[in-house]
Amino acid sequence: MVDFKESMARRFNNVFVCQRCNATNRSSSGKPPQCRKCGSQRLRLKKKKRKAAA
Ligand SMILES: [Zn+2]
């Protein structure tokens, strides 16, 4: 069976979102130095979003 925790970690832990253009930047390890699209250094870690009540 596929390791679910592993895939979740891969999906969320290494994904950063540019605060300027909202592009997602994936990196294998650590934080990417800058956005791949606009070159901004303002990146935040992508958070797991819950769509419980909408
Ligand atoms: Zn960007």
Structural description of this entry:
With 54 residues, this protein is α+β, with helices and mostly antiparallel strands. It has a single domain (4-45), classed as Rubrerythrin, domain 2 (Single Sheet), CATH 2.20.28. 19% of the residues lie in helices and 19% in strands. It has one helix at 4-13, and strands spanning 15-18, 24-26, 43-45. A three-stranded antiparallel beta sheet has the order 2-1-3. It is flat. The structure holds zinc ion (ZN). Zinc ion (ZN) binds at residues 18, 20-21, 23, 35, 37-38, 40.
In which range does the helix fraction lie? 10-25%
CATH topology: Rubrerythrin, domain 2
Main pleated-sheet profile: 3 strands, antiparallel
Arithmetic mean pLDDT: 81
The poorly predicted ranges are none
The side-by-side strand order for the widest beta sheet comes to 2-1-3
Residues in β-strands, percent: 15-25%
Structural class: alpha+beta
Summarize the entry for a quick read.
This protein is an alpha+beta fold and 54 residues long.
Helices, strands, pairings?
Blueprint: H1 4-13, E1 15-18, E2 24-26, E3 43-45
Antiparallel strand pairs: 1-2, 1-3
The protein binds zinc ion.
